[in-house]
């Protein structure tokens, strides 16, 4: 897939499906794997794989099976959800931490000072 990544709202669903098929075909060719071999590795029918490579619709399960067989699951990395905290929430947490430390220090000072 020598084209730049242009998957966006500008292109149709069928064009995206076609690009997925092109990616699979290109990756398969680069790894010097036949359609029959890849279909067997993925647990799919060769005809199904052929249809996918020519832009026919694909199920998510089939896509995952093919990507796994091609050792290309890395393309799904974009779907990974990372829990990130906003800068404002981070500042609030730090403020609470400081307050807890101050409270502990104050309690410790009271215990040590017996007033003698």
Please report the number of helical segments: 5
CATH-level-2 architecture of the domain at 13-79: Orthogonal Bundle
Biggest sheet character = none
* The CATH top-level class label of the domain at 13-79: Mainly Alpha
CA-based gyration radius: 28 Å
Q: Quote the average pLDDT.
A: 83
Strand content: under 5%
- Please identify which CATH superfamily of the domain at 13-79 we are dealing with: lambda repressor-like DNA-binding domains
Query: Any low-confidence stretches, pLDDT <50, length ≥5?
Result: none
- The class by helix and strand makeup works out as mainly alpha
CATH topology value of the domain at 13-79: 434 Repressor (Amino-terminal Domain)
Number of strands: 0
Helical percentage = 55-70%
Helix/strand order, N-terminal first: HHHHH
Shape: elongated
């Amino acid at each position: 897939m020598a084209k730049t990544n242009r998957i966006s709202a500008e292109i149709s669903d069928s064009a995206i499906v076609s690009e997925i098929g092109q990616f699979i075909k290109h990756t398969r060719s680069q790894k010097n794997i036949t359609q029959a071999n890849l279909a067997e590795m993925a647990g799919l029918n060769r005809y199904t794989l052929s249809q996918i490579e020519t832009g026919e619709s694909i199920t998510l399960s089939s896509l995952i099976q093919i990507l796994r067989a091609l050792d290309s699951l890395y393309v799904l990395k974009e779907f990974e959800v990372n829990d990130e905290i906003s800068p404002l929430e981070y500042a609030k947490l730090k403020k609470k931490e400081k307050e807890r430390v101050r409270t502990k220090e104050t309690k410790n000072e009271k215990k040590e000072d017996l007033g003698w």
